Amino acid sequence: MSVYSETVMDHFRNPRNVGEIADADGVGEVGNAKCGDIMKIYLKIEDGIIKDAKFNTFGCGSAIASSSMATEMIKGKPVEEALELTNKAVVEALDGLPVQKIHCSVLAEEAVKAALKDYYDKNGIAYDAAIFGEKA
Ligand code: FES
């Protein structure tokens, strides 16, 4: 019996949105110092809508499944909505993660936020720094 849900296994085995976006409007790279895993998310944004999202994750299966799910969840969404993506929502969409793997989903939330911050910074869009200041 696997401790992972079918959804986690599916996104781990067949990750969606793997790769890079060469002319990305926002790129976010985050890492977890403890496990050493690294996640990079690329966003293509037009008129405030996330047209495309891709990722490269050098990490565990849960991190890959989390980035796959997170990119699926934000594609087609307005930037403001993507900013509200929480690791909890990613875990729920994956039908759960083992407790010791929750930090992998936190990485996905942080990578999305880092990419959106990069987009704001590159385009000179003003924002409340508190949105990015609070880490889960
Ligand atoms: Fe660290 Fe999964 S074990 S991201």
Q: Could you write a compact summary of the structure shown?
A:
With 136 residues, the protein is of the alpha+beta class.
Verbal overview:
The protein is an alpha+beta fold and 136 residues long. The protein has 6 helices and 3 strands. The protein has one domain: Sufe protein. Chain: A, CATH 3.90.1010. The protein has a 3-stranded antiparallel β-sheet with strand order 1-2-3. The longest helix has 21 residues. The model has no long low-confidence stretch (mean pLDDT 95). Bound molecules: FE2/S2 (inorganic) cluster. FE2/S2 (inorganic) cluster (FES) binds next to helix 2 and helix 5.
SSE diagram, text form:
Elements: H1 6-13, E1 26-31, E2 38-46, E3 49-58, H2 61-74, H3 79-83, H4 87-93, H5 102-122, H6 130-133
Antiparallel strand pairs: 1-2, 2-3
This protein binds FE2/S2 (inorganic) cluster.
Can you give keywords for this protein?
globular, 18% strand, binds FE2/S2 (inorganic) cluster, Sufe protein. Chain: A, 136 residues, 3-stranded antiparallel β-sheet, alpha+beta
What is the CATH level 1 assignment? Alpha Beta
Number of continuous helical runs: 6
Judging from the principal axes of the Cα atoms, what is the shape? globular
Number of strands: 3
Helical percentage? 40-55%
The CATH topology corresponds to Sufe protein. Chain: A
Structural class: alpha+beta
The unreliable regions are none
The number of domains is 1
- Side by side, the strands of the main sheet go 1-2-3
Give the overall pLDDT as a whole number: 95
